[in-house]
Design a protein that fits this description.
The complex is a heterodimer of chains A (287) and B (131). Chain A is mainly alpha-helical. Chain A has one domain: Up-down Bundle (Four Helix Bundle (Hemerythrin (Met), subunit A)). Chain A is built from nine helices and two strands, in the order H-H-H-H-H-E-H-H-E-H-H. Chain B is mainly α. Chain B is 60% helix and 0% strand. The longest helix of chain B is centred in the C-terminal third of the chain and has 32 residues. Chain B is flat. At the A-B interface, helix 2, helix 4, helix 7 and helix 9 of A face helix 1, helix 2, helix 3 and helix 4 of B.
Chain lengths: 287, 131
């Protein structure tokens, strides 16, 4: 079978039917199954990070109870609303494409793209604040102050110990600060972090933190930046796809007989929204 | 392109059989429901439910995800096989995280004493309580 006869045979279906498909419906369903399979690989990609989150939170709830106070609930909620609204406009854009309403389709896609910029704008404000306050992953975690809402008897001493002050945290020859040992001397017993945490919780049942800063808070910010960073990369990729679809929509390429790129871009964008729906309560709304 | 003009009418039944056109009021209702659930999940953090807070937050997030998947992502109207693909993927995610959590519960206290305070009631593999 030559391509020429194949193409000629489907000429009446329009330019958008690829030669290896029999009908537009077959082409559409094949693409749809393909994008769903791709979305499952995306879910599995994110599940690795959600798994890391689950393991660290199960073992060290005190780190999450303390460090989430550094995050801005209002900015997180704002971004949630922005993404939910953008999912709505995206779904409406797909509908407009299905109904052949090209002008509405272009407007709604543009609105979705604007929402993507708004989300990244809010995110960059948050990232800048974390950078300024020294709330970064690993050794870069050098908090300037305890979080709002936490009653910490002694403020973090890291800046002092970085200059080698006596009585602070031990320091290795390379200048790297070592974490305080959490293994208590045998005579003292086992004053694990949980006791401090539970005492604080008992004194202040409203979910605020009372007590010294827990160890290894940098773990929270490692997870925070990995999860929101990977999500942010997906927002960028989604915006690129939307921009591409927007250009094609302005040319009037989509209509009731062919709207697969709009539909599949929409599915990807909704998945990005789905991931954020879980990230928001897990990172910002820890009780 | 004779069908195109017929399909431009704003009516759910006027599509060409490619996919399903979700009525606008359904999309709007889902949007409002998602907003309400977002407000609810923020409000519920002000109430102390102990460990239940995490599960309530996850349940609300799951409900929101369900609305997005079923209506915005058309899975309710789609071929059932796409739902099978999606739920199959979620099954593997649950398996993945559940098994890793089981593992960390079993080993964390013996490997790193006092580094896993939530695990203090877990015993060592041979049944002797951790000192």
């Amino acid at each position: 079978m030559t391509d020429a006869t194949n193409v000629a045979g489907h000429h009446d279906e329009g330019w958008h039917l690829a030669h290896h498909f029999e009908t537009p419906a077959q082409q559409f369903e094949s693409g749809k199954l393909g994008i769903w399979l791709f979305l499952t690989t995306e879910i599995l990609l994110f599940s690795g990070l959600f798994c890391a989150y689950a393991v660290y939170r199960a073992n060290h709830p005190e780190i999450f109870a303390y460090a989430h106070l550094y995050l801005s609930k209002s900015l997180g909620a704002l971004n949630t609303v922005v993404l939910i609204f953008s999912s709505f406009t995206m779904a409406a854009a797909v509908r407009a494409a299905q109904l052949g309403q090209t002008r509405w389709q272009v407007r709604l896609l543009a609105l979705t793209l604007v929402c993507g910029f708004a989300f990244l704008g809010v995110k960059s404000v948050e990232y800048q604040a974390k950078w300024k306050e020294g709330l970064l992953a690993g050794r870069a975690y050098q908090p300037a102050a305890p979080p709002h809402g936490a009653v910490v008897p002694e403020p973090p001493q890291r800046a002092e110990s970085a200059t080698g002050a006596a009585g602070g945290q031990p320091e290795s020859a390379g200048g790297m600060k070592l974490d305080k040992s959490t293994i208590a001397p045998a005579a003292v017993g086992r004053p694990g972090l949980s006791e401090k945490w539970l005492q604080g919780k008992a004194a202040h049942p409203d979910g605020h933190w009372v007590g010294p800063e827990p160890n290894n808070v940098q773990l929270f910010f490692g997870i925070y930046f990995a999860m929101t960073g990977l999500h942010g990369v997906h927002v960028l990729a989604g915006m690129a796809a939307i921009a591409w679809v927007l250009v094609r929509a302005r040319r009037g390429e989509f209509g009731p007989k062919y709207f697969s790129p709009v539909d599949f871009t929409g599915l990807y964008w909704h998945l990005v929204d789905l991931v954020w729906i879980f990230l928001f309560p897990l990172l910002y709304l820890i009780h | 392109m004779a069908e195109t003009s017929a399909a431009t009418t704003d009516h759910p039944d006027a599509h060409t059989g490619l996919g399903h056109v979700v009525p606008l009021w359904v999309l709007a209702a889902v949007f409002v429901a998602l907003l309400v659930l977002t407000v609810l999940t923020v409000a519920v953090t002000l109430v102390d439910l102990g460990n239940l807070n995490l599960y309530v937050a996850l349940a609300i997030a799951g409900l929101k995800a369900g609305l997005v998947v079923l209506y915005f992502m058309h899975l309710r109207y789609d071929r059932p096989f796409h739902l099978v693909v999606f739920l199959g993927c979620l099954g593997f995610v649950v398996l993945f995280i559940a098994l890793v959590l089981t593992d960390t519960r079993a080993y964390a206290p013996t490997l790193l004493p006092d580094q896993a305070p939530q695990m203090k009631d877990v015993h060592t593999p041979f049944g002797t309580p951790r000192p």
